Amino acid sequence: MEWLFIALATCLLSLCPVKGDEWRLEYEEGLSHYSEEALKKEFPEKTRPISFKHPPFMCPDMSPSSSVPTSVELVKAADIKVIAALGDSLTTAIGANATTVLGIPIEFRHVSWSIGGYGTFQDVITLANIIRLFNPHLVGPAPTKTVHGTPAPLCETGFNLAVTGHNTFNLPEQVRHLIDTLKTYEDIDFDEDWKLLTILIGMNDICDYCKDKALLTKLFLWQTSDRRFFYSIDTFCSQCQSREINI
Prior knowledge:
This protein has 247 residues and is mostly helical. The protein has helices spanning 2-15, 22-32, 36-42, 89-92, 127-134, 154-157, 171-184, 203-211, 218-239, and strands at residues 80-87, 106-107, 146-147, 194-200, 243-246. The longest helix is centred in the last third of the chain and has 22 residues, at 218-239. The model has no long low-confidence stretch (mean pLDDT 84). One of its GO terms (biological process) is phospholipid metabolic process.
């Protein structure tokens, strides 16, 4: 329900007279410069028609291996059966497609660069949509958007288990959540299916340092956070044999 409070607060602020409505008028005037219509007029060469599609993607070899690879060096794109992602707001894609302030709490997971599953490669270029070209039955791409602070089921997140606001200290719990999810998911073979995991995290560590410099000293950041990060990687690798990890 957090987004409802944000929407209500925004509406109340817009109705409050600040300097005789000057604030509201300046805000609305500023928004007009960022509207889709205004952008089309100002930068017509940078706008795309509604029917726009990216050119088809072709590769000389889009077939899977003749047998399940036993080493990551032998894995082809078509061998990847599962895709997953962990991290923070850069992976949840919060506000990515927002056109007004009301869209900021929305997590546009379906267009997230590493695991978004919206449409096809020709609609949105994401890592998941690229892998889908090689394996149309890829499991895990995020199918839709979610709301920050609101519990979302797997049918909405896919295996995009990143959490907005998390930092490196939270990575072990994300890894634990992913392992438990993969082990109990019916449509995959946890031991045999090759999995591609992307981890992007750490921006909030830098921001948190400004909040409490005494706690998050340089030594604390580089030693404790580093250990938690590599502990998380080691945990995933030790319990999930067939995997590829992007860091």
